[in-house]
Amino acid sequence: MPGYYLFYSMETQVITVREHIIQTACKLFHEQGYNLTGINQIIDEAGLAKASLYYHFPSKEDLCVAYLQRRNKLWFDGLESYLNGTSEPRHRIVKTFDFRALHLENNNFGGCSYIKIISEMPQRGEKINRQVLLQKEKQRLFFLELTRLAIGNRKTAARVADTIFLLFDGGTVQCQVYREVTPLQVARRAVVELLDGL
Questions:
Q1: What is the 3-state secondary structure (H, E, C) of 105-140?
Q2: What is the DSSP track for 146-192?
Q3: Chain segment 115-140, per-residue pLDDT in tens
Q4: In 3D, which of 27, 14, 4, 186 has the Cα closest to residue 110?
């Protein structure tokens, strides 16, 4: 059965076929984009039979959903590690911008995986669309929760959090365009001024 084959990573950790496929797809989708990555390339790079891939992922869209879920987990795991030891909500908000800038530099200004996917797929399928919206809403709620802790007023907090989220995503896109972290630094300063003025 395809699900029981095992691969060994560089660190000699045992991984399943499904995990091997996800790791291969993540690398290719992030480096060259969704549209330029074909199923056959994923199969070749993973060293699998086509039946093994389709056993775990019936369509390329299903594989894209797994890719987005993985990128989201990596992002939030990395963010929580970066914020470890920072408890004050305002500081956590601002440091999230610092982490995004560091993340972009370390990933060659590849940008946000979700924004990249939707820019490639204006007529994206329902599964991908649902996943993109779900994860973007998770980011927005992350800022909303911190903003409510920072300023208290629920109605005001929602408006402020939406502004912070817009600055975060907009700064990320501009960093991808200019291939430098200056736009996020500008967005970070705007957030500090916004929070200080409340």
A1: HHCCCCCCHHHHHHHHCCCCCHHHHHHHHHHHHHHH
A2: HHHHHH--HHHHHHHHHHHHHHHHHHHHHHHHHTSSHHHHHHHHHHH
A3: 888 888 767 788 998 999 999 999 99
A4: 27
> Closest Cα partner for 57 from 13, 20, 9?
20
Backbone angles phi, psi at 170, to 5 degrees: -65, -40
Predicted confidence (pLDDT) per residue in 59-95, tens digit:
999 999 999 999 999 999 999 999 999 999 999 999 9
* Residues 28 and 14: beta-carbon distance below 8 Å: no
Closest to 39 in 3D by CA, of 47, 50, 30, 31: 50
Could you tell me the two tokens for 78? 């990395």
Query: What domains, with CATH codes, occur in the chain?
Result: 1-58 (1.10.10.60), 59-196 (1.10.357.10)
pLDDT at position 153 over 90: no
Query: Hunting for tokens 């480096």 — which residue is that?
Result: 31
- As a whole number of angstroms, the distance between CA 132 and CA 68 comes to 8
